[in-house]
Amino acid sequence: MSSAATAAAAASASRFRVEPATMRRLLGLALLILWEVLPRAGFIPSLFLPPLTETLRALVAGGGEYLRHLLLSLYAIGLSMLAACGIGIGAGLLIGSIAPVRRVVQPLASGLYAVPLVILYPLFTAWFGIGPQSKIVFASIYGLLPCFLGTVAGVQTIDRQYVTVARSMKASRWQMVSRVLLPAAIPTVLSAFRVGGALVIVGIVVAEMLTSTEGIGYLITRYRTLLESPRVSAGILVVVALVVAFDSLVRLLERRTRHWRLSTRSA
Description:
Layout: H1 2-15, H2 20-41, H3 52-61, H4 63-96, H5 99-113, H6 121-128, H7 132-156, H8 160-168, H9 173-184, H10 186-210, H11 216-225, H12 229-256, H13 258-266
């Protein structure tokens, strides 16, 4: 009887179990409802957080302006992400496979990552001006270190037998990186790409908010100065949508590279 009762309880629990994706959607829907209800009810001043409907109305009314500045931000984000993630992941795979170099470079990169790079942004503006060059360089460096450190850590978790077999087959350094290290470390590499790419987006928006005359961050700062809260919230909503879209892209890459992980495990 006890086993039958346990099985029935387990079946009942599985019947009412909510999938993680469904839970995320419900949580997002609840946040949107609270965004609309709390300011309307007076729990949050509209100056600090306008209702969702007013935010969407401001976004639609200024759609052309937001789109123009979003394209400028996307251009800077694309260049910065290409530099940060490309150089960071490539250098992480290469340096992570060379133990003597890794022992020297990894502690230095970890120490630099602990430094808040935002305090160095005035130096970038002095060197590159207040145009797109300064924010691109700043965001590239901001996202490069986590990509590099995450990739190096992923290389260290690879089974050494893969490396030994590749060396016994006289694989070149490029073959070692592209056909052994990258497929075996792809989960950690994508995690590093997720963190580094998100920091690139943050770096671009922060740079635009500090010293820029274009981009979504600039719009947020301008409308904040004018105390136009709905337009500020509209800009923040655009940034949130951009981050969610980037996360969805990384999830798509994880699904597309799943066969790499499976083939590595079977090997």
